Fold each of these.
Amino acid sequence: MSKTRVYFPGLNGLRFIAAVAVIFTHIELIKKFLGYGSHWLDLEKLSYSTPLEAVFRREISWVTPFISNSGPLGVVFFFVLSGFLITYLLFVEKETTGVIRIKEFYMRRILRIWPLYFLIFILGFFVLPNFSLFDVRVQSRAFELYYWENFFLFLFFLPNLAFSMFLAVPNIGQLWSIGVEEQFYLIWPWVMKKSKNILRTILVFTGVIIVFKLGVLLFSSQISGFWMGVLKKFFAMSKLECMSLGGLGAYVLYYKKDRILKVVYHPLVFILSILIIPIMIMIVPKFLQNGVHILYSICSLVIILNVSTNPNCFVKLENKFLDFLGKISFGIYMYHMMIIAAVLHFAKNTLHFNNDLNPMESIVVYLAVLSLTILVSALSYKYLELPFIRRKKAVSHVISGENAK
């Protein structure tokens, strides 16, 4: 029996752009940990209310807020995209087969995520700590203190809880977002399968999470302590509402809500969704930072819908080069932290770069990190990930991604 095919052009290009944004932020973060001059922005230590005010007061460089926020923006984008794709494919499966097969859904997620996740897990806990090339100073010291606590939390897909309790595990701290996605995947197919009114369910799900987080935030301002801090950080990181907003976009597209799509597809709305992001980076005050991701999610969703589903969109990202880079973007996200640490150690110890990199040295570092990450990710995709991706077909009733071309 032929299977339904779903393919959204341009999404691989967007995936790669988001992955590069994450790399840029983490280069600056690891530079800070290793004693380099850095554009990393620590909002808590900012003496002014907004980044823009800090720039005017010459406390930070004008480029610092953009570089520091590009990574969080990239992660929010990945969350929205994940929710959009998963929900749309579940809509298609439910209509074409009459049911959502949850065990097969879990198997597809396992085949796509677990092989690379557990490889990075093994590297991060058993291999990389043995080499000074991957030492990240403060993170590495904390890792030694809380090794087994981190180990078991990562093993059971709770890296976001580990990150909330301790410092990030060096070289693999980015796995916190994989934990968030896995927790979303654990509940979302049940939500889709059991819901009688999916639009109402998505709206209620999103609203409840936002209200609950607001309650935790307000409650934590009244009560201090270690566990309250953990609770606050855990729920701040667990951006399930970003993924459910992506699901809302899937609903609008799948059920052809033309009046909404007409607004979303308007060129001015698309342009504003792009322009709002850098504006908000500069003007949102510190006390609103925990909620601005909602607006970023909406902007990300507008961009996704336009680039991948609007035939009149003036941004075209569908080409072989970006398609390839997008296919390996999961690897880019998973490997880049260890490569950043290695490149920065090599630059200091072998190339004798000073702590304050000049523009040419910075370009060398950025290009080396990006090139090596792409190379490692391409090899990983071909020899590790692709064999498991091919096995997904046996448990897929809807063919998606590159297999659907």
Amino acid sequence: MSTVSKSGKLPIGRILMAGTAVTVLAMGHAQAQGAKIGFLGGLTGPIAGALPPIVDATRLVVRQVNAQGGILGGKLTMVTGDTKCSPQSSVASANKLINVDRVAGIIGALCSSATIAAANSVAVPKGIVMISPASTSPAITGLKDKDFVFRTAASDSFQGKVLARAVIRQGIKKVAMTFVNNDYGKGLADNFRAEYKKLGGTVAGDQAHEDKKSSYRGEIAALAKGGAKHLVMFAYPQGSAPVIIRQSLEAGLFKRFIGSEAMYDEKMYKTVGIKNLNGTIYTRPASPKGRANALYTSAMKKAFPKSVGKLFTTHTYDAAFLLALAIEKAGSTNGTKVRDALRAVADGKGAKIYPGQWKRAKALIKAGKAIDYVGAAGSSDFDKNGDPTEAAYHLWRISRGKHQVIGTFK
């Protein structure tokens, strides 16, 4: 039996146990009404440090739905599955969520390779919606997914170009680049490389690397031969990233680093020493200010204050709220009906629904009125491929051990 703090928040190490507990509860009390959703993410593995706030964002939606009348006449429950950020584990966990736990839809996965594997092998064949709040590989856009795969985070076809433009604007005309050898790393590298060269930049060293090695000294030495002083790195914060940074600094070959949102990780900062990262620049998804974001932030501060402002939490909240709205709109947990309803609740038409407004949404759906969810991370409308129709990124710099926003791209 797991313990819960006075704040109601489970300790990080108990997240998996929490998922199991929810599953047992649901199985122990057969539910003729209500709905179950799955959360599929790297609870262990190279992105585990980022997971607790992301899980909190999903739990906030579950709390709000149940406090404001529930779903399909019953309660909304959540079951977790651990991908370990690997395709194999993702497929196994997705199989359990869909075939054993009988979820109506899945929030996740987070790592792009995990999302692609779970979608192709399980979710799409079984006709179950997946909404990823963090998988950014361009490869997801072109999946033959029968419109069952969506995401609230923008494709790296945008982020890679944004980062390249930002680097050029900083006056950096030569870089070396290394990237983790998977869909996430390749997608970012391909788009950064193309845009950077187009703008006149030179990639003096360029190679993929395998995650979770104990040493990258050979790769670092080879990358440094081109004479670049800056290393562009697309890697996981609890995988290859801290090892590459530490060994680069030890060898005195690279002292300035450039990266994507994976460079934002508090555990990694403690590992390598954040003062050693002064001058680092990185892109990170930005959430627009306004009523939607303010409502979300207020609710998150009350429920999970330590998770406010963390990476991909707004995107996760939106994914979970959208899935709940789609289930209620469909009036069913049938996968195809949920898929079709998902587009109906986020198409730019109908009464605006903002974060936390579950009771209002239920009333409008019951009355046969059209609704349009406006999310904490943006409009939440999807294009024909299931990607968000708008996105924004902040450019951050680490200076004197602190993070500063130095630019915004939309």
